[in-house]
Design brief:
Elements: E1 5-10, E2 12-13, E3 16-19, H1 21-32, E4 38-43, E5 53-56, E6 62-64, E7 81-83, E8 88-91, H2 93-107, H3 132-146, H4 160-170, E9 173-174, E10 188-189, E11 192-193, H5 206-221, H6 225-230, H7 232-241, H8 245-251, E12 254-255, H9 295-306, H10 343-363, E13 369-373, H11 379-387, E14 392-397, H12 400-413, E15 418-422, E16 434-441, H13 443-455, E17 458-464, H14 481-486, H15 489-498, H16 510-530, E18 533-539, E19 550-556
Parallel strand pairs: 1-4, 4-6, 8-15, 13-14, 13-16, 14-15, 16-17
Antiparallel strand pairs: 1-7, 2-3, 3-5, 5-12, 7-8, 9-11, 10-11, 17-19, 18-19
Amino acid sequence: MKMNKVYLEVYSVTEFCVAPIETIVTLFTIKYCSSKIKIRLIPSKQKPLERTYKMDISCFEYEVVDANKVPSYATSCELPIIALNKICYIAGLCAILRQIVKDVVSKNPEHRCRQLLGFKDSCLTACSEASIWTKFCEVDLILTLKFLHAEDAACNELPSTMARFECHMLQPVRLRNLNKYTIPKKMFKHGHLLEHTYAEGSYITIADIIIFVCMRILLTVFSGESTLRLLPLTVRWYEKMLEDQAIVDCLECLLVANENTINEINYTLPQVPNQSLYKSDPKRYKPRSRIFTRQEDVEQSLEVFRSLNIDTTLDSEPFAVELNLNWSSVPFDATPEGGSLPPTRLKRKQAQLQNMCKPVIKLAKEGDVIVDFCSGSGHLGILLAYLLPDCTLILLENKEESLNRAKERVRKLNLMNVRFYQCNLDYFKGKFDIGLSLHACGVATDLVIQQCIKRRASFVCCPCCYGSLHDCHHLTYPRSDVFRKDMRRENYMVLSHAADQTHDEKNVKTKQGYECMAIVDTDRKILAEQCGYKVYFSKFIPENCTPKNHILVGIPRKDTRRQSV
């Protein structure tokens, strides 16, 4: 069995390495878990304004790989990345740390790092767009460390991430299956553990490892009595972490210098929400609260939009409607039935796949790379891989179990033109010619379109979950300049929530829901058009194969320059 390889970015390598924070956290985790994963260090150029960190690597076995000789798959995603084999890769800090732990546990189920995966192995499985906790560990903290400079230590205010973690540790912890915990009952109230021991409760997890490395640096840079007074719970957690001898051993490799040359700075904490980082973002619109789908608000927002005189008319026929797909020639394992769908969904799924495949077949050329973003278990990507044997299909999905089901189907079909990437779609940076997504939820559809525009790739997208749209660290709403100019975000979000009210044709809200769907998708269409795309906007045939039946096909015009999105 070939051992997994982890590819890490470094800026220089001697007896210690100078590297970005993601590399430091990964090496720290490898040492903590006593992992035997093969380490490949890729020298690269330091990015402007980025802070570097040092790690003693004399205790690691590693190989330095020349940047020009790095396998293409290792450069198709933001580093760090793990190669499981020649066709399966994992990217994203949380995902690769989980894989490192799982690899150790698979060889030794009783290994002490087993608990790092958390309750039901669910620690940090959600993507950063959906989980504030994952975003805090994988994005917010990492960005704080990436752009931390010596002059920051002379400022009076601590970083907001330090304040947010302190507030998080102040909140009670809700634990599942309380009878499994050997904790005194007096520590509980209404099913909540009154105090955190570790970041996620009473046991150390991967989140603690990430946060510890970052806090070790932050507490060194922002050293002093005032910091300790302001962060009593963080300090208590930090001291608890130091009771673990494996953590102490790892610290010998982490080289952090105290940059606070001023004897004592009276630091202050920035104002942040006093909430757990598990909670949903209070700034996000919550469809279940119903306050954003009140009929008077929807009508008022529709009135605002209609006054803009923006055409939301759909094309009368879908792009590539003239093509036919002969299902009788498709092998069982490439059909929806072969994907283990229940009988009640087979016919509708088949129609959805047919609507998505036709534009791709018409657009694809020999040698094209096609990415099925948010691929799930591969219904669309696997079918296209069979139908387009001269193209390479990349199935990109952040859920490991879904990809494992897809891998099994690909194995049965003996398809040689499929690659698998387990990661968030924003980590993928490889070259491709066509990007697709079938019912990618909310923000994911816009991230797919954004990825395609950046690569000047065609896109075929069927959006879903309009009510889940929200601003994130990648993009904001409305999307297009036309909408941004004359429409308030609040009105836009009301309409996006109303767009999910597409029920059966007898429901009084259905017609209104489809009008709102058309508005949101017209915003997406106009964004692509302003970036130099010809966009076809229509409905699936038959329309009743899914309530979310819009399809956007974008083709880059050859005579236009790429614009930012």
